[in-house]
């Protein structure tokens, strides 16, 4: 403005009407402001756009993993093949392996197709086995061993369809794709269409994807994320049980009791630094300390939990200290003023008020740990086939297991394209968990946080 | 001192519970990521058919697996190492130093290595080892017999029958067992076929140096080392029309909707041609058993026997369906496992 006055006589008339008419400089400033707003909106827009693209891709690719194609067929269980001695003793019958059950299923399926009036266009009728999952023999065998009286009867079974048939139902596999595929032929798809018309084949929601165990590479249709989910669960228990008390204790001491000197400054700086350390570093530390020195078992959720605890601790400590700091000093002074000891004032007054903030920080820390993969690479939780449910609580901590993000990584690596879809489906489940945890954190903050 | 005590006691509790839970009842397997699919198929079937728990299978690569295998004897060490190559002398020594003296070597079958490109891409349908050597070698002899940096830019430069597309190959990185086979069976073979080997020795190189020169891959970006899995190679091929990648036969057979395979020396790769030995680029797959663990870890011997049984590893078994080329001498392997013949005695 001072410039304008010193500019001389010429701009005077314009200046007199400055309230209604903007001069050039004001226009320029206003333009700069609106430009800046536009940049901001554009930045947010780009962010939202990418988020939408990502979510769309995840949902579109992942949703098919939640449904699975099943084939229902009545299978005759001939006594002469499944129980050679004829005494229905499960121990004797266990000698017939799944390889002995396969032809039984093939025969049953061929008969079921003939009964339904579906023509089998391929020469070797045994080829119908390509349409059902390799898991089917084990399914029948387990049923038979559990109920030996079924032998000799005809029992209805609901089998998983093989991954190629399932892919066809989901539109992932076309007849053209199968031209050079040795897992399935285009002719099978004619049978599949006919079976669908006859009601023998249907696609339904697949709970086993969420709660089931991982499967080998030859049967992607059977794989589920359930065991890995348990692995993640046990790891989170370890993280919660260690990071929360250690982190809260450390921050209460640092915030309320510790003298302010060079040592505590040094500790403070290092905690902030630790929060920025790449997670893979904690993985290497875990490998060296917990596995090579302490000889804890490889791939165990306990070790994973310990490593993730190290990673989460700084987050918990920083957020706890922040929420302790946010409690106004007047509360402490009042408590001390009526004769409370330092410890009483902290535990009776400051800590309860800081609790919502501490819990929020802990939950965010847990969510971060839940999605972490890198440190698990080094302690053997990635690349592990999570096919066994833990037997109990101890085995849940100690037995080798995988974790959800590690399971997703593992699926994405596998050869069969059906696993690719499952990887996306796994991401949906993982995201649901993370979102739930974050929502809980937000609710806690909204409901219990007090502002002064 | 509160936090410190807590940490200390937590670690102590963890250590105590670890020793308590050490009585391991399942077989532990680790090693080659090539063998992993086969091992996990067998482990799954084993769990279904036996009362023993399903063995634990991990990947990590042949060398990493053998290193863990050689850490010593005891329940805290793995029982079986999978490998896509034979164990090396150095590793046997490392094993012996750690007390792992009796090792049973089991050959489970063969794995084919195939050369594939985009399904709708250029016509890469027939290769010779010589083509690959000329396309990928760091240095080649020119017509005058001088050793020069590889001048070939397109496949047509290498072999007039191949499409005039720029050379771009995706080959396994040096940590993969597959790379070794690729170097020996393709590059070295090609080197000998083209006479470059002689040219190298004629230029004053020792035999070892000449071999190394044969297997040295150019570093000008025409050949890309893939350290990840075949899925990564597939992704690269997907985005490069002129790319040619090196895959395992099983991986290719699962992705025939995206890839087309090329013949090598005129032979199309398939389980049949590899079993008969016609297809030149194949390698044996192994697993190694710690004999000291047999009888200690329940189910170990049963698992090994089950792995090599006709039902599993035979020509019609699930491994063969997945892409493993069954070993024509399976009966001998079965005998090795049954008699627990260790390496020293078997060879």
Automatic annotation (TrEMBL), chain A:
One GO BP: phosphate ion transmembrane transport
PROSITE patterns per record: ABC_TM1
Transmembrane feature ranges: 38-59, 225-254, 274-294, 300-318, 350-371, 423-444
Cellular location(s): Cell inner membrane; Cell membrane
Compositional bias (Low complexity): 1-18
Similarity-based family: Belongs to the binding-protein-dependent transport system permease family. CysTW subfamily.
Keyword field: Cell membrane, Membrane, Transmembrane, Transmembrane helix, Transport
UniProt-recorded name of the protein: Phosphate transport system permease protein PstA
Superkingdom of source: Bacteria
Entry's Gene Ontology cellular component terms: plasma membrane
Stretches assigned to the ABC transmembrane type-1 domain: 229-441
Residue span of region Disordered: 1-24
Membrane topology designation: Multi-pass membrane protein
Pfam families associated with the record: BPD_transp_1, DUF3333
InterPro entries noted in UniProt: DUF3333, MetI-like, MetI-like_sf, Phosphate_PstA
GO molecular-function terms, A-Z: phosphate transmembrane transporter activity
NCBIfam families, alphabetized: 3a0107s02c (TIGR00974)
UniProtKB/TrEMBL annotation, chain B:
Leader sequence segment: 1-22
Keyword Signal: yes
SUPFAM superfamilies assigned to the protein according to its UniProt record, in alphabetical order: Periplasmic binding protein-like II
Transmembrane segments: none
Coiled-coil regions, chain positions: none
InterPro entries per UniProt: PBP_domain, Phosphate_ABC_transporter
Top-level taxon in the UniProt lineage: Bacteria
Keywords for this protein: Signal
Keyword Signal in annotation: yes
One Pfam family of this chain: PBP_like_2
Ranges where the PBP domain occurs: 17-311
PANTHER family cross-referenced by the UniProt entry: PERIPLASMIC PHOSPHATE BINDING COMPONENT OF PHOSPHATE ABC TRANSPORTER, PHOSPHATE-BINDING PROTEIN PSTS
Protein name: Phosphonate ABC transporter substrate-binding protein
Organism: Pseudooceanicola nanhaiensis
Lineage: Bacteria, Pseudomonadati, Pseudomonadota, Alphaproteobacteria, Rhodobacterales
């Amino acid at each position: 403005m001072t410039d304008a006055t010193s500019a001389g006589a010429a701009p005077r008339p314009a200046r007199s009407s400055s309230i209604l008419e903007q001069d050039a400089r004001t226009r320029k400033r206003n333009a700069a402001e609106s430009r800046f707003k536009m940049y901001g909106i554009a930045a947010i827009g780009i962010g939202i756009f990418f988020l939408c693209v990502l979510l769309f891709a995840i949902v579109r690719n992942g949703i098919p993993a939640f449904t699975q194609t099943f084939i229902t067929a009545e299978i005759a269980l001939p006594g002469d093949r499944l129980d050679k001695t004829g005494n229905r003793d499960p121990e004797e019958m266990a000698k017939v392996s799944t390889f002995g059950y396969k032809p039984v299923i093939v025969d049953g399926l061929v008969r079921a197709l003939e009964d339904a009036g579906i023509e089998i266009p391929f020469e070797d009728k045994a080829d119908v086995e390509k349409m059902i999952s390799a898991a089917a023999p084990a399914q029948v065998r387990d049923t038979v061993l559990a109920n030996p009286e079924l032998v000799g009867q005809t029992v209805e079974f609901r089998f998983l369809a093989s991954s190629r048939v399932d892919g066809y139902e989901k539109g992932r596999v076309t007849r053209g794709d199968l031209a050079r595929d040795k897992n399935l032929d285009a002719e099978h798809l004619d049978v599949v269409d006919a079976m669908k018309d006859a009601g023998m084949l249907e696609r339904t929601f697949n709970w086993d994807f969420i709660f089931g165990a991982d499967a080998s590479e030859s049967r992607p249709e059977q794989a589920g994320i359930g065991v890995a989910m348990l692995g993640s669960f046990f790891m989170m228990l370890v993280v919660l049980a260690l990071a929360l008390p250690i982190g809260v204790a450390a921050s209460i001491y640092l915030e309320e009791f510790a003298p302010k000197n060079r040592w505590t400054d040094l500790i403070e700086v290092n905690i902030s630094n630790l929060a920025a350390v790449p997670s893979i570093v904690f993985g290497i530390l875990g490998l060296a300390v917990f596995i090579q020195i302490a000889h804890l078992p490889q791939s165990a959720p306990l070790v994973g939990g310990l490593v993730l605890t190290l990673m989460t601790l700084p987050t918990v400590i920083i957020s706890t200290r922040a929420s302790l700091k946010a409690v106004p000093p007047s509360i402490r002074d009042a408590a001390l003023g009526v004769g409370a000891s330092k410890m009483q004032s902290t535990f009776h007054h400051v800590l309860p008020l800081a609790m919502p903030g501490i819990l929020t920080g802990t939950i965010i820390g847990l969510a971060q740990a839940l999605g972490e993969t890198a440190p698990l690479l080094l302690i053997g939780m990635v690349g592990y086939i999570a096919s066994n449910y833990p037997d109990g609580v101890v085995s849940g901590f100690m037995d080798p297991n995988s974790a959800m993000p590690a399971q997703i990584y593992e699926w994405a690596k596998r050869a069969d394209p059906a696993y690719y879809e499952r990887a996306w489906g796994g991401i949906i489940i993982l995201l649901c968990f993370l979102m739930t945890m974050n929502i809980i954190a937000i609710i806690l903050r909204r409901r219990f946080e007090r502002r002064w | 001192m509160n936090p410190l005590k807590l940490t200390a006691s937590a670690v102590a509790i963890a250590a105590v519970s670890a020793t308590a839970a050490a009585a391991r009842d399942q077989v532990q397997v680790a090693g080659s990521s090539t063998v992993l699919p086969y091992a996990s198929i067998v482990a799954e079937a084993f769990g279904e058919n036996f009362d023993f728990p399903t063995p634990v299978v991990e990947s990590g690569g042949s060398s990493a697996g053998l290193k863990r295998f050689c850490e010593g004897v005891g329940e805290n060490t793995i029982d079986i190492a999978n490998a896509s190559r034979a164990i090396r002398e150095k590793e046997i020594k490392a094993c012996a130093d750690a007390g792992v003296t009796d090792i049973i070597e089991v050959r489970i079958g063969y794995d084919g290595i195939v050369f594939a490109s985009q399904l709708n891409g250029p016509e890469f349908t027939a290769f010779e080892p010589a083509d690959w050597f000329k396309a990928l070698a760091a240095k080649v002899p020119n017509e005058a017999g001088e050793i020069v940096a590889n001048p070939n830019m397109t496949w047509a430069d290498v072999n007039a029958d191949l499409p005039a597309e720029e050379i771009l190959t995706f080959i396994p990185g040096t940590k993969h067992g597959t790379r070794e086979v690729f170097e020996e069976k393709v590059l070295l073979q090609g080197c000998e076929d083209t006479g470059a080997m002689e040219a190298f020795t004629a230029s004053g190189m020792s035999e070892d140096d000449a071999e190394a020169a044969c297997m040295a891959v150019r570093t000008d970006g025409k050949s890309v080392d893939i350290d990840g899995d075949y899925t990564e190679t597939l992704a690269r091929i997907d985005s490069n029309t002129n790319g040619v990648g090196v895959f395992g036969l099983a991986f290719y057979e699962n992705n025939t909707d995206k890839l087309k395979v090329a013949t090598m020396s005129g032979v199309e790769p398939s389980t049949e041609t590899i079993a008969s030995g016609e297809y030149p680029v194949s390698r044996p797959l192994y697993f190694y058993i710690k004999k000291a663990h047999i009888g200690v870890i329940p189910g170990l011997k049963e698992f090994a026997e089950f792995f090599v049984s006709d039902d599993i590893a035979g020509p019609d078994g699930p491994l063969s369906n997945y892409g493993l080329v069954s070993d024509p001498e399976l009966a001998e392997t079965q005998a090795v496992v049954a008699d627990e013949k260790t390496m020293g005695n078997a060879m």
